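Running this now, will post back.
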Amino acid sequence: MRRRDFITLLGGAAVWPIAARAQQGVHVVGILAPQPLPPIERFVRKLREYGYVEGENLRLVRRFSEGHDDRFPALAVELTAVPVGMIVTWGTPAAVAAKQATSSIPVVMGAVGDPVSVGIVSNLARPGGNITGCVGQNVDLEGKRLELLKDLLPQLSRVAMLANAANPLAHASMQNLRTTAEQLRINFDIFEVHSIAEIEVALQQLNNARPDGVLIASDLLLLTRRSEIAEFLAKNKLPAVYPFREYAEVGGLMIHGANLGSLFERAAGYVDRILKGAKPGDLPVQLATEFELIINLKTAAAIGLAVPPTLIARADEVIE
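Update: finished.
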């Protein structure tokens, strides 16, 4: 082979150095997420449908922060050092960490709030670079959750929100929520945390304020303490709307959000396409199209709340 041809070939291979090539026929994919929750299990099952079987032609390298978002940058660097051929992320902090760790290894966002507002990608239709994936539209849904809380409590006038100020998505979410609160003429207070160590104190401060209702922000750090949060609010008879299905499993009163399992299944499709040679930057970031409304009547009864029949009729799932 002539030297010029060799250099050309080498340069072309370096564009996506590991993405579409697997050593010894095994694809190595990293998972960067807060916890091993059900949406990730659905992702793995969907990969199997595409022909990627863990232990055969697929190796999954899992890294979980377990509620410590500040660990994501180091975990992302660990994955690049394995090295993995692709990184699949869950949540804004994980996606930001992956973006900072590599500009060459493909990154597929299994679910993220709003990648444009936080600078992960500049354009949804053609994200460019090495990142694509799926969006749960949580920024837009924050206002919708407030509207649902108003439907649940017609006399609602004061709402408290528990939020993770360290999440890059928090600012955009709060702006959207404040707009909706002004339209509904609802007073709105935010109780912020920066780590899981601050959640207990923030909940107590929230309770002392005695709001009519509570919103839990779309944040995965908070999700890792879902039992603690849901139990506290129920014990203090504070009606709340939550963003993720997992809160329903620990007694959350009402849940509204994107179907994250469905998003991760779509992300698996992108993993398949990229492993077969597609460039992440050419694959449009997909918006969530399936949403869930779950109402826990058992919790409603425990806090002495009657849920309007019209709201129950709109629910996708009712827990009795």
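The chain has twelve helices and 13 strands. More later if anyone needs it.
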